[in-house]
Structures are given as C-alpha cells and as structure tokens.
Amino acid sequence: MNVEILTPDKKLFSGEAEYVNVPGQAGRTGILSKHAPMIAALKAGQVKVRDAEKKEHLFDIKGGIVEVSNNKVILLAE
C-alpha cells in the first residue's frame, strides 16, 4: 500500500509499506494492505511504518488525522 505522512512543514514519509500502526483516539490501530476505508482522529504518540523491505520507521506526532482509502494511507500529523 502507498503511505504518505505529512506535517505542515514537510513530508515525513512517502512510499510503499506493508504495515502502519497509529495512535488513534480510541487506541492503537494497525493498518495492513487492502484495509477497509476509514478516517480517524489521532492522539499524541508514535506512528510505526514497516516498509516493503521490512525496515521499521518511527515518527513521533502530537495528533492528527489518518485516512485509508483505495490501498492508500494519508496521515496528516501535527
């Protein structure tokens, strides 16, 4: 799946990934390829992305929104 993590200042990540884990308001949410469409508010915490080469990337965020649709994840982070 294609993943983009954006802040108001810059793009933190853009590329293919096999797994994303985000700190949702209701708890942590794991997102795999072909995940059902969703939009969720995020709280402060750490976003984990496992890319296509199985390398893990960690990003600290203060909050934001995640949208999953058509095998694409767009995360707008603070």
CATH class: Mainly Beta
Question: How much of the sequence is in beta strands?
Answer: over 45%
The number of helices is 0
Q: Could you tell me how far the N terminus lies from the C terminus, measured between alpha carbons in angstroms?
A: 23 Å
Overall mean pLDDT? 96
CATH homologous superfamily label = F0F1 ATP synthase delta/epsilon subunit, N-terminal
Give me the CATH fold name.
ATP Synthase, domain 1
Query: How is the main sheet built?
Result: 5 strands, mixed, barrel
User: Which parts are unreliable, with pLDDT below 50 for 5 consecutive residues or more?
Assistant: none
Reported CATH architecture: Sandwich
Q: Report the structural category.
A: mainly beta
Number of domains: 1
Gyration radius, rounded: 11 Å
Instruction: Count every beta strand, where a strand is a DSSP E run of 2 or more residues.
Output: 6
Describe the secondary-structure layout.
Elements: E1 2-6, E2 11-24, E3 27-32, E4 38-51, E5 56-69, E6 72-77
Parallel strand pairs: 1-6
Antiparallel strand pairs: 1-2, 2-3, 2-4, 4-5, 5-6
Structure notes:
There is one protein chain. This protein is an all-beta fold. A hairpin with a 2-residue loop joins strand 5 (56-69) and strand 6. It is globular, with a radius of gyration of 11 Å. Strands 1-2-4-5-6 form a five-stranded mixed β-barrel. It contains no helices and six strands.
Task: Jot down its keywords.
78 residues; mainly beta; ATP Synthase, domain 1; five-stranded mixed barrel; 76% strand; globular
